[in-house]
Amino acid sequence: MPARDPVLTPELIKILKIFIFSSLGLVFIFSFFNSYRADNTGLDRTFKASDAEKLYFLNVRSIHYDREVRRDAGMTLFRHGKRMQSDSFPTFDPVIVLNPVKDGAYIFFELLNAEYPISIHAYSGSDSQSIQFSIGNNQDHFRLMNQLKPWIEANYQIELRAENQSFPIWSTEKEKEVFKTIAEDYFRLINQADN
């Protein structure tokens, strides 16, 4: 009976060591790039609020807001406590809406003392821009926030036109600071603080 050749020869052991250590090294290196993995869930994460950001908002930032719990809709609305309120002039204020069922945070512009459709006009020197807006959905309100935020930061004069009349909105520094605070809190909630 012939003698069997050993299966684990010194050359094979060297190849196995190289393969095992290089595989472990690659796994270790790729673990640092975990945030770059593909999202194949098909879910829209635009309005997804992380637990950490919700806790921060609810425990730290929400003291600046008036809270309205809407049990019928399963949502909580947060209106800034220092927003301008009027019984006669139209106001158009952003409201942060938290939906605990979907772990979502939404922005909603609340129009009071006027009817849709409206237009918003911004002026700065010779630059003039406008936006037509009707009630819209979550994406429309989100897009409007992204359009208004640079105007507020650049200190544009902004008017709301409704029913053939013009009304200044966010005209004082206090009103602009309230808007900026709401925008900052909202974008932080949805992990887009760099917007």
Number of helices: 4
Average pLDDT over all residues: 87
Shape: elongated
Q: What kind of sheet is the major sheet? A: 4 strands, antiparallel
Task: Measure the end-to-end span.
Answer: 78 Å
| Helix amount | 25-40%
Question: What structural class results from the helix and strand content?
Answer: alpha+beta
Order of helices and strands: HHEEEEEEHEEH
Radius of gyration: 27 Å
The stretches of 5 or more residues where confidence is low (pLDDT under 50) are none
Strand content: 25-35%
Number of E-type strands: 8
Task: Tell me the strand order in the biggest sheet.
Answer: 1-2-3-4
Can you lay out the helices and strands and say which pair or pack?
Layout (H helix, E strand, L loop, with lengths): L9 H21 L20 H9 L5 E6 L4 E6 L10 E9 L4 E9 L5 E7 L2 E7 L4 H16 L3 E6 L2 E5 L3 H17 L6
Antiparallel strand pairs: 1-2, 2-3, 3-4, 5-6, 5-7, 7-8
Helix pairs in contact: 3-4
